[in-house]
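Progress narrative, work stream C.
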Amino acid sequence: MQYIFTKDWFDKNSRQNWDRIVPIINPKKILEIGSYEGAAACYLIEKLGKNNFLEVHCIDTWEESDDIPKEDAVIVEKRFDYNMQLAVNKSQNKTKYFKYKSQSHLVLSKMIADGVGDFELIYIDASHYAVDVLTDAVLSFKLLKAGGILIFDDYLWAGDENIVYYPKIAIDSFTNVFSKHIKLIPAPLNQIYAVKIT
């Protein structure tokens, strides 16, 4: 059985960097915000799940968005479910995963309120709108373990609207405000890697 991925966004933008960085961190508790068909989560399970017990949390609305027409949203979610089950099976069931079909700020706020946390890797790849990216970043930082890594995708993404709707302004704001609490890891500019130091 093979994964069903219809987009190559993850491979094109991430795999080479992640091959280098992820084994060093060796995370066992992972949070992904914006899962789409599950390519990044499946990569992490395959990379880490054969030798470790993993806990992977995936948040997405699986609703109409900039990337998903309304009529395709159900199909994309079904692909995610299929791909994740396949990845878990390949890890010989060493992976426990949690799926949250909701807006990210609602799930992240509940996790904070419930005392869920100590994530070692958090990947932010959901909405491109600056206010959403900044909200995801600030809430995620509270859930990130010291020494854990926060990965932002789509740093240089640009649409046809006002700049305040681009991820870059939100990511720059976060990294500036939290500069004394993070260490940035050099990487190609489409992604930003921030390690929590306090």
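Work stream C, second folded protein:
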Amino acid sequence: MKLPEHLFFTGVPGSHWSAIAQDIENIPGFNTSDHSDQREYSPGTYTGHKGAYFGESMEFKSFLNLSYINTAWKETGGTKIVKSHEWAYKLPLIKQLCPDAWIMLVYRPDLTSYAWWHEAGGFKIKYPNYDSYKDSTTMLGEITRQNQAMLEFGYANNAKWSHYTTEWLQQAFDTDCTSRKQPTDILVTIIK
């Protein structure tokens, strides 16, 4: 299977999307040169965050310009996972402007995601920066709107949603790999 240069990746805060991105980055052919000590958050037993994140209060803004996006990686080549919660609002534009890119959506119910995000550190998370969400009420509202935007885009594009499992990961990327066990309320899809 030929992988794309860019995999636009989105999920709401608390959806376990960062752990899923880390599983995918272990597949041969993915470029992880965006990883550094400054771009990592490891809160004890949780998988945390690794690599560049794009968004309003993040290190990189969520501009849909591939030259700008590529500056987050030290090396060229391989597939870059371009992570942003805000891609949920720009999915039709991503599909239009980046037709060769894949888009991966990670869905987890609103309140469960909200609770998990707080358990994993909430506003104390050091990387990436969640200041633009302002407070817990705003965070819950954003989680709800982002999930709704992903579901609507998935519906409009006939997305096939599946539970995130090792079998799904192997089939989606045509490779022998293993996923970490994730909660059973997570659904994923890739739109190519």
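Strands lie at 6-11, 40-41, 49-50, 80-83, 102-107, 162-163, 187-191. No further action is required on this item.
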